[in-house]
Write a structure and sequence with these properties.
Helix content is 36%, strand content 23%. The chain is of the alpha/beta class and 501 residues long. It is elongated and about 80 Å long.
């Protein structure tokens, strides 16, 4: 009798296992199979970062990356749209840069410059001075400023001012930053009139050098900056500053090859399209921003976001996927300049917004997908869609959690999904983690000189591309749009306050 019961249990398990396996879409099985045997996520990242490099909009690197991505989509049988998202008055291409202290001793300088800032006129050598802090100092040293490198020494904030800034609203902080920028520009302009070579600011390591924000206000070639804006390693800055205080003669040499391109220069979103077979006018979006800063090569921010989406598209096409609704693989332009590309698309295609099932955005580093937070109304659909994910790799178990309603975004935020959230579109995203212990730190890389290919994590990136393909294809294959019920709080209802620990 016991043998019979054991045999019955075994046969039942086999039956239900085969039955469950039979319920998985053959395309999903194929996606997983190809993704495990022939995953090309890191090949895409290699091209994006090591062939093209950093990709600010308006640069040859960005244009090349956009053209390459579109060609890959076409190669895999997808449709492609190059969506003109905006225009800059001028373009920018970065060359090599070099700097050293030549007196009182030799020291190689560790520094960077923002995109869209001026380079040197070849190799330029000059003495270093501290900026004059008032009109009296300025008058006393105005002759000494000619052909000098000026170390900017902003006043230190006292505890009262620091405390005041902590209590500021985001809007007040933005207003303060704008005011400080205007004051800084006026100060540099006054120094420029005395013939300085450039200004040098102290920068924390790893050095963060983004872009000259004035570029968005330029109207023509005549608006270009003419003075170098150097961000110098904080330790070297302190050392040079002390030498100047001691009245030593410090001489610095820089060769910075920052080049501009005549405009107007257009920039484009790259949209790869897998047309829907039953609901072609309904959409699932996946992607991230294609642009990056160029002091490094933009491998993490946001190569680690766009390349899994690019590979997910390839996997769907290679597996013979024919989704019921249209999949849009959106590689956004100008995220780093203020969510420009995604904001343009949302404004241009307002009529599509009610028919978007979900916008999957990846912009947080090369950690691996470990789960997803799902609203109550979406739970049953997403549970079925995510069912195969735990069978892909036992090292990366996938967990679903309930998502409580949240407020819509009030304004464009730190990533492209914010402008979709503002318009009531679900932006359900994946949770990620570092379960293998690679000691990844986003802050070490974000917008810094450390954002290179070697900082990516291949096994995480490859698994992420498979999961993305499975989930996006599953959502696209539902016979209905995902429910938006309870995803956002009603507009009149404030978000629940966080409890203080």
């Amino acid at each position: 009798m016991k043998k019979f019961l054991v045999l019955t249990v075994v046969m039942s398990l086999l039956f239900f296992s085969q039955f469950s396996d039979a319920q998985i879409d053959p395309v999903i099985k194929k996606i997983i199979e190809i993704g495990k045997k022939d995953n090309r996520t890191m090949k895409h990242l290699d091209v994006l970062t090591n062939r093209f490099g950093g990709r600010p909009i308006g640069s040859a690197a960005y244009d090349n990356a956009a053209e390459w991505a579109g060609k890959k989509f076409k190669e895999w049988g997808m449709q492609v749209e190059y969506d003109e998202a905006g225009t800059l008055a001028v373009g920018f291409n970065r060359g090599a840069w070099f700097g050293k202290m030549t007196s009182p001793r030799s020291m190689h300088l560790h520094f960077a410059t923002p995109s869209y800032s001026s380079g040197t006129r070849g190799r330029q050598v000059g003495h270093a001075v501290l900026e004059p802090l008032d009109d009296k100092q300025f008058e006393r040293m105005k002759k000494k400023l000619k052909r000098a490198w000026v170390l900017l020494t902003p006043p230190e904030l006292d505890e009262e001012e620091l405390e005041k800034r902590k209590k500021m609203t985001p809007e007040e902080r933005r207003e303060l930053r704008d005011l400080e920028r205007k004051k800084a520009k006026a100060k540099v302009k006054k120094l420029e009139e005395k013939g300085i070579l450039g200004v040098i600011s102290s920068a924390k390591v790893p050095i963060n050098a983004t872009y000259n924000r004035d570029v968005k206000d330029w109207k023509s070639w005549e608006d270009l900056p003419t003075t170098c804006d150097i961000k110098l390693d904080e330790h070297q800055f302190a050392e040079i500053k002390q030498m100047i205080i001691e009245r030593q003669r410090v001489e610095l040499e820089f060769d910075i090859r920052n080049y501009f391109k005549m405009g107007p220069v257009k920039y484009h979103n790259v949209i790869g399209i897998i047309p829907g077979t039953e609901y072609p006018d309904e959409y699932v979006i996946m992607g991230g921003h294609l642009d990056s800063f160029d002091v490094a090569t933009g491998a993490v921010d946001n190569g680690s976001g766009v390349t899994p989406a690019i590979e997910a598209a390839r996997l769907i096409m290679a597996a013979g996927g024919k989704p019921k609704r249209t999949i849009l693989v959106c590689l956004w332009a100008g995220e780093e300049f203020g969510i420009l590309g995604a904001g343009h698309w949302v404004e241009k295609f307002k009529d599509r917004l009610p028919r978007i099932s979900n916008m999957f955005n990846r912009d947080g580093g090369p950690t691996v997908i470990t789960g997803i937070s799902v609203s109550e109304a979406m739970w049953d659909d997403m549970e079925k869609i995510c069912q195969p994910l735990n069978d892909i790799n036992p090292d990366f178990p996938f967990k679903m959690e309930k998502r409580k309603p949240r407020e819509r975004s009030k304004r464009p935020g730190g990533t492209d999904s914010s402008v979709f959230s503002m318009n009531g579109i679900p932006t359900m995203g994946f949770r990620t983690a570092d379960p293998k212990g690679y000691d990844f730190s986003y802050r070490e890389i974000w917008h810094t000189e450390n954002d290179y290919y070697q900082k990516s994590i291949p096994e995480y990136q490859e698994h992420t591309s498979i999961v993305t393909a499975v989930v996006v294809y599953g959502v696209a294959n539902l016979d209905h749009l995902l429910s938006r019920e309870g995803y956002f709080l009603p507009d009149s209802e404030p978000a629940p306050k966080k409890k203080n620990n």
